[in-house]
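Suppose you are handed a protein chain with no further information: no name, no annotation, nothing but its sequence. What can you learn? This example shows the usual starting point.
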Amino acid sequence: MHTKDYEVWHNIKRNLHNKKARPFFHEGEVWFCSLGENIGFEEDGRGQNYLRPVIIVRKFNKEVCWGVPLTKSKRSSQYYYSFNLNSKTSTAILSQLRLIDCKRLQYKTGAITTKDLSNIRKNLRQLLS
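A reasonable first move is to predict its three-dimensional structure. Written in structure tokens, the prediction is:
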């Protein structure tokens, strides 16, 4: 079992909060995001900056958005939505929808189709109702 180092993550999070400017972003884009070291079954980021790709599903303003983390694992249930991104299959983990301060966004890696964004939103509405 992986031992989590929350001290390292908290130092990175402090730097993001204090120093990083928010990038310009749009709904439907996929960004690598510093999601951090989380608890239990919450999706963690990986690597030095605790990064994980997320889809921007709703932009509220220039500071916050709703993001859905992605995985390379193909899964099928009401909690997942698989699609092609950059010629590879990715799966949105709909149950992990979260509010993200856009200071966490590190770099854009692509965008999903309008149809996939619409389907993800439809599936999220069904999941939340």
